[in-house]
Amino acid sequence: MRPMHATSRLSVLVTVLVLLASAPWAPAAPVPPAAPAVSPAPRAVPSPASRAALADLPKDLPSLLSLYRELHASPELSLQETKTSARMAAEVSALGFEVTTGVGKTGVVAVLRNGPGPTLLIRTDMDGLPVVEATGLPFASKVRATTDEGIESGVMHACGHDVHMTAWVGTARRLVAARQRWSGTLVMIAQPAEERGTGARLMLKDGLYRRFPRPTHALAFHDSASLAAGTLGYSRGYALANVDSVDLVVKGVGGHGAYPHTTKDPIVLAARIVTALQTLVARELDPHQPAVVTVGSFHAGSKHNIISDQATLLITVRSYKDEVRKLLLDGIARIAKGEAIAAGVPADRMPVVTVRDEFTPATFNTPAFTELAVAQLTAHFGKARVQETLPPMGGEDFSQYYLADKSIESFIFWVGGVPRARWDATAGDVAKLPSLHSALWAPDAELTIRTAVEGMTTVALAVLASK
After folding, report:
1. N or C: which end of the chain has fewer CB within 10 A?
2. What's the chain's Rg over C-alpha atoms?
3. Whole-number pLDDT of residue 45
4. Which of 155, 96, 98, 90 lies closest to 127, judged by CA?
């Protein structure tokens, strides 16, 4: 290349500087340093298999909505899901699955073998809650039942398990219709007692991984009262929390309300314990570790002028990591005993702490499956409808299927249920919207079910080997 003359180089330099100074796009402030390079997420495009599988979904929606209304109007409590499980069994049996009922008491396992390839477990839960419905829907539940604790109550699908079951059936129908486009084994399970955190454990104990094909992948979704209908959410790593239920019996020495000096008042002591428990999260736990300690019930006494001899606290404890869980549970016992000693309670009247066995371990989304699923969901729905969300402190015993065999890939995601008009009216302020477990929870059934079926089918076909 021929060298440029010095005068020419100077002229060019001056011209460039003038142009830069006058350019409308010239930066007004220093450009910040570039962010560290991040490995791109796997790219994906909607597959021909998913397009083919979902082609007839609009025609299937009226049938699915009819099933949804039927399920919504007839909920059953945990481990009482006899009619519900029979309904689920009938649906998958009609599709050609090998169906086994009574797994883990009322659970259903349906197997479809479709050649070599991965084994995909898809789970739905079935139980309703002891909640009196107040939605005003024409198909609202009027069911009443008695809990295991002997309490008669209305029963409602206030957590959306009716949506889950309907989408589970819809997904099974779509995958069967497209079975020429995938290869592998499909294990569809309808699980009891998710609300009590025992259903998955009961099914596993009853031989889920021994009597039926052991999955390579486990997939589920949950409807969300924190996302608009038609949108999806997911979390990487921990997706839901450890959940412990703790019963704390605070003992005292009862007596006459006019002579408190002759007693050891358990109500005052229990109140001090409630206050001190807040320091577990506020002062003993690393602020970077999420945790919740909530006293949900405080019962004591029977009359104005009687100091009772005990008070009972019912506590829910939420965490993600095992070491945080241990810190909280040990701390509850330590604080209760310490406050009792400080109050001068006799040694034989120390508080009794019982951690119930209905423990739900934290749910973990495995990295490889998460990246695959998110790529496919984003390709199908577009980035605007798929968002990464902070993991909530709610619990889900879907966690048990991965924890029983950590070689399994596991993924659970959220499907928004809030009707768009209500979402827009509140600007997405979830504090102004009914939550899950609310007597007012009424998702946009059609859009939520359609989105769930599309999402579950898309991810399932990404897992199952193509023929």
Report:
1. N
2. 28
3. 58
4. 155
Q: What is the pLDDT of residue 47?
A: 72
Burial of 440 (0-12, 13-18, 19+ CB in 10 A): middle
Of 76, 81, 125, 127, the active-site residue reads: 127
- Domains of the chain as residue ranges with CATH: 48-240+362-463 (3.40.630.10), 242-355 (3.30.70.360)
Contacts of 388 (CB under 8 A, 6+ apart): 233, 234, 235, 236
Query: What pTM does this model have?
Result: 0.86
Instruction: Identify whether the C-beta of residue 379 lies closer than 8 Å to the C-beta of residue 46.
Output: yes
Q: How far apart are the two ends of the chain, measured CA to CA in Å?
A: 57
Those residues whose C-beta lies under 8 Å from the C-beta of residue 231, and which sit 6 or more positions away, are: 385, 386, 387, 415, 416, 451
Indicate if 194 belongs to the active site: yes
DSSP 8-class letter at 143: -
Q: Is 312 helix (H, G, I), strand (E, B) or coil?
A: strand
Distances (CA, A) of 229 to 174, 254, 337, 448: 21, 54, 48, 6
Ranking 384-393, 430-439, 457-466 by mean pLDDT, the lowest is: 457-466
**Active-site annotation holds for 322:** no
Average pLDDT of the segment spanning 40-69: 82
Mean model confidence pLDDT for the chain = 91
Burial readout 177-212 (b: 16 or more C-beta within 10 A, e: otherwise): bbbebbebbbbbbbbbbbbbbbbbbbbbebebbeeb
Catalytic residue among 76, 91, 133, 194: 194
Q: What pLDDT score does 44 carry?
A: 52
Look at the alpha carbons of 23, 24, 29, 30 in this order and tell me if their dihedral is positive or negative: negative
Phi and psi, residue 227, nearest 5°: -135, 145
Which tokens in the block code for residue 127? 């139980």
Measured from the Cβ of residue 88, the count of other Cβ atoms closer than 10 Å reads: 28
Residue 49: what pLDDT?
Answer: 81
- Model confidence pLDDT, tens digit, residues 15-54: 433 333 333 333 333 333 333 333 333 445 567 788 888 9
The length of the chain is 467
> Phi and psi dihedrals of 264, rounded to 5?
-125, 100
Of 280, 205, 206, 293, the residue nearest 246 (C-alpha): 293
209-224 per-position pLDDT tens digit: 999 999 999 999 999 9
Give me the half-sphere count of Cα atoms (radius 13 Å) on the Cβ side of residue 417. 26
For 24, the 3-state DSSP assignment is: coil
Bridge partners of 310?
A: 251
